[in-house]
Amino acid sequence: MTIHFFCALLCEANPIIENYNLIKSDKYNLFNIYLSADKEISLTLTGIGKTNAAKAVNYHHECVNTSDNNIWLNIGIAGHKNIEIGETRLVNKIIDDEDKLSWYPQIIFNPPCDCEDLVSLKSPSTKYKSCLYDMEASGFYQMAVKFGTSELIHSLKIISDNSEKSMSMINKKNVEFLVKNKMNVIEKLLAELEVLANNITPGNRKPKYYNLFLEKWHFTQSEKHMLSSLLTKLLIRYSDENLFEMTE
Question: pLDDT tens digits, residue range 80-126?
Fold first, then answer.
């Protein structure tokens, strides 16, 4: 299982670096990249903001071997109007506040926590609403989908501030504590994504049973694309079943 982590700040990344024994590479200097001994787990520090996040993802792709069935995770803190500090949320919609573009991460597995919409801002704000706020997810996601598979690209956010406890109370020490305290959620998410990654077929290969369905029924070109996507999802959910027999 190959995993690519992306964090804006070192204090967000430290618990992940420690948990997976990642070592900073001396080969890369545009962005700091940390690697496991077997190179299967990597982490890049993006810096703050969507532009930096997008550049970091692109740089990471150029420096580290990536493929279709790799896992891409943006881990970091976020604000929300009333979610309790320290709670985790998996992002199911990303909105770029500046250009109003939206993305919908494909959550076709059992998430280890509740899901929430997120707005990526150009600058920090204390005008909390009932959604997550960060500054990197839109840049991360729109670049990562160019290199990876959307079902394996996700943002997990830990609530660091809300309408009762504002950003002024955030410091490096408590950010590191928040992330470290939720490593179990990160690992549960990875376990779900590993199962999914094992069912993602790289490149243009089609999922199991695809050709059998084409032999039995007629599909338009658009229906063929839908069939491929649905079979992938069904094979994940019913991995021990013979799907072709289920259609009889």
Answer: 999 999 999 999 999 999 999 999 998 988 999 999 999 999 998 88
CATH level 3 topology of 3-197: Rossmann fold (3.40.50)
Measure the CA dihedral 130/141/14/159, to 10°: 0
pLDDT, tens digit, for every residue of 9-64? 999 999 999 999 999 999 999 999 999 999 999 999 999 999 999 999 999 999 99
The domain ranges of the chain are 3-197, 210-246
**What is the C-alpha separation between 37 and 44, in angstroms, rounded?**
15
